[in-house]
């Protein structure tokens, strides 16, 4: 995917909750009308934007004979609010032996063959024909036009396709660097695969496993693992420059937050000055953490948190750079890998006899989770089942709010074609709590699985909106009556309405994350610095400097989510002891010794040095 044509110029798809609202506000300014504010908005943190924009819902299907594919595009409405690459005795549901060929797809890799979208909304390829009604006939064998690069050319990107993209200057409070990039109205021509991409995801032969797939099982006769394998020792911390005095940056940060909370600007500015002297984006973990939090405190003190957060989101970081930074992160940290393995394993063993599997993926993003599952399904005895995926994402800005989620569907369709898995894809770009059950297109007799990994933290709760979007989404899940609900969350307590309390919890949470990266990635690693800026930096800015409905980083603990899920009418499935043992062995053998994999109350817990950061569990209707 990193080698997709024009990828360097495409905006990243990672969460950007305020960019679309800001773009709409600029349009209101041009026509001389006042942008409608949101209810409950805090005047100290800028205007909240509510907008109705087109919603695209598309479906693609690949028949078992692969003689053709179809695509449909129908417009409705997308209510855009945020857009942001968080006890019973029962028998275990996954006691089946683990397959020796269970595989895992790295989240940084995916297929990139795209078919062009014409201006009339039809989809075709080099051998297909579009008749203007959204139906396209094609031959799968002519779908791929491969083009392989040498290892030294991995950074090269083809620049063909859309030219003359426009950048419109933003005029919000003098933020000159804040720009709004329009999405292209039409997609680029059929893309070529690079040698790197082919090695990472696409097999050279039908029976060959993708080289990027992680084989996490231990041999059948060797379940125990050696603690000495793969251990990494923490590096000694570097001294803070020429300063001999020890500075407690965490205490200074908390004192500064208290001063800002009490509106003691003079003391807050003095403390910020001290923090700036001893913090650096290039230092050790505590120095980088202090630098990140100081930026957020300064923005809150100046009342520019929302504007700065929007400006950070609007920076012209290419999707390729974001994916490279994300790839560096997952190579050093097992959190996302373990969560995906847990979800895919749960699904595979629950669908061993299903003829049709329908996955409703809340927050599909680039779809990195599913190639490994598709590969496993292709090897199932008796032939693969039909796979239906409903990919749900938040709308992107521009003329095609569902463009990227549709691209995800085309990539997955290509992978299913290669492995002879019948496939159908439905793309929905809409505010999650406004999705209706009929839009999911659930059919009778199919195995329905709802999947949501780490994205529920961006839903507003009852402290902001009386009708909680979190509970609304969980009610939708329950209404779908799934055979399984796979839920992974960011375990955090920094969702309190009181600023100082929220600040303390966020400080403790991100201290563990910065320390984890400091122990597993070099301090001069450019990808680490980019990841900390683009992911952690923006999250901290939102948590500390934004309020009301503009604060979209709202994680809860796994125990709080357990209460919500049970209230919605769900019950937990027990963990598979064999899977837990093998995951623990994998983490102990391949990653730093301070990574934690544990379990509590049927939740799989992951953390760093005893602090739980992520949690995963499987649910069914009660």
TrEMBL record:
- Show which residues constitute the signal peptide: none
List localization entries. Answer: Nucleus
Q: Where is this motif: VHIID?
A: 357-361
Name of the protein in question: Uncharacterized protein
The record, for InterPro entries, names: TF_GRAS
Biased composition (Basic and acidic residues) is annotated at 162-181
Q: Give UniProt keywords alphabetically.
A: Nucleus, Transcription, Transcription regulation
Under the cellular component aspect of Gene Ontology, which terms does the record hold? Answer: nucleus
Q: Tell me the protein family, please.
A: Belongs to the GRAS family.
Biased composition, Low complexity: where in the chain? 109-126
Renumbered to this chain, region (VHIID) spans 326-391
Origin organism of this chain? Linum tenue
The region called Leucine repeat II (LRII) is annotated at 407-439
Q: Where is this region: Disordered?
A: 31-80, 109-130, 162-189
Primary localisation category: nucleus
Chain residue ranges for the region called SAW: 545-620
Region described as Leucine repeat I (LRI): spans on this chain? 247-307
């Amino acid at each position: 995917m990193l080698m997709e044509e024009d990828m360097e110029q495409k905006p990243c798809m990672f969460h950007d909750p305020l960019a679309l609202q800001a773009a709409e506000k600029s349009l209101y300014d041009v026509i001389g009308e006042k942008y409608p504010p949101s209810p409950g908005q805090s005047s100290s943190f800028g205007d909240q934007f509510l907008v109705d924009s087109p919603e695209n819902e598309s479906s693609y299907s690949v028949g078992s004979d692969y003689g053709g594919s179809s695509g449909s595009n129908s417009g409705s409405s997308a209510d855009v609010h945020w857009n942001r690459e968080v006890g019973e005795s029962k028998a275990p549901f996954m006691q089946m032996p683990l397959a020796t060929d269970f595989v895992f797809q790295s989240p940084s890799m995916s297929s990139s063959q795209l078919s062009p979208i014409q201006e009339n909304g039809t989809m075709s390829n080099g051998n297909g024909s579009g008749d203007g009604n959204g139906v396209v006939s094609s031959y799968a064998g002519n779908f791929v036009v491969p083009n392989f690069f040498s290892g030294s050319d991995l950074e090269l990107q083809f620049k063909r396709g859309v030219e003359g993209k426009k950048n419109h200057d933003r005029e919000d409070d003098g933020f000159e660097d804040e720009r709004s990039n329009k999405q292209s109205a039409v997609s680029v021509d059929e893309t070529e695969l690079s040698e790197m991409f082919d090695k990472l995801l696409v097999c050279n032969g039908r029976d060959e496993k993708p080289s990027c797939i992680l084989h996490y099982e231990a041999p059948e006769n060797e379940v125990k693992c050696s603690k000495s394998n793969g251990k990494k020792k923490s590096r000694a911390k570097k001294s803070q420059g020429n300063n001999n005095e020890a500075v407690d940056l965490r205490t200074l940060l908390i004192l500064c937050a208290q001063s800002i909370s009490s509106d003691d600007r003079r003391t807050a500015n003095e403390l910020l000055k001290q923090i700036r002297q001893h913090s650096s984006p290039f230092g050790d973990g505590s120095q980088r953490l202090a630098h990140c939090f100081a930026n957020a405190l300064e923005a809150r003190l100046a009342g520019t948190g929302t504007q700065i957060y929007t400006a950070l989101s609007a920076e012209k970081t290419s999707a390729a750079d974001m994916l490279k930074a994300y790839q560096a992160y997952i190579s050093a940290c097992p959190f996302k890998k373990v969560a995906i393995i847990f979800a895919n394993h749960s699904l595979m063993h629950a669908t061993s006899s299903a003829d049709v599997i329908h996955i409703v993926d809340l927050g599909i993003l680039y779809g990195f989770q599913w190639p490994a599952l598709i590969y496993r399904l292709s090897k199932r005895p008796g032939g693969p089942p039909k796979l239906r995926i409903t990919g749900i994402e938040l709308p992107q800005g521009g003329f095609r709010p569902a463009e990227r989620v549709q691209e995800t569907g085309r990539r997955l369709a290509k992978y299913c074609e290669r492995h002879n898995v019948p496939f159908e894809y439905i793309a929905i770009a809409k505010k999650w709590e406004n999705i209706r059950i009929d839009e999911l297109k659930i059919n009778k007799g199919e195995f329905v699985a709802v999947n949501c990994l780490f994205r529920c933290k961006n839903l507003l709760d009852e402290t902001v909106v009386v009708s909680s979007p979190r509970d609304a989404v969980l009610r939708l899940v329950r209404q779908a009556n799934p055979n399984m609900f796979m839920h992974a969350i960011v375990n955090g307590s920094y969702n309190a309405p009181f600023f100082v309390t929220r600040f303390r919890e966020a400080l403790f949470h991100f201290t563990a994350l910065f320390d984890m990266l400091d122990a597993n990635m070099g301090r001069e690693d450019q990808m680490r610095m980019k990841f900390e800026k683009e992911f952690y930096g923006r999250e901290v800015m939102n948590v500390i400097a934004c309020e009301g409905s503009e604060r979209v980083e709202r994680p809860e603990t796994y125990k709080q989510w357990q209460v919500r899920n049970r209230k919605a009418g769900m019950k937990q499935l027990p963990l598979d002891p064999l899977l837990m043992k093998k995951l623990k062995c994998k983490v102990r053998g391949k990653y730093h010794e301070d990574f934690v994999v544990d379990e509590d109350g049927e939740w799989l817990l992951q953390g760093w040095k005893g602090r739980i950061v992520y949690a995963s569990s499987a649910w069914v209707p009660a």
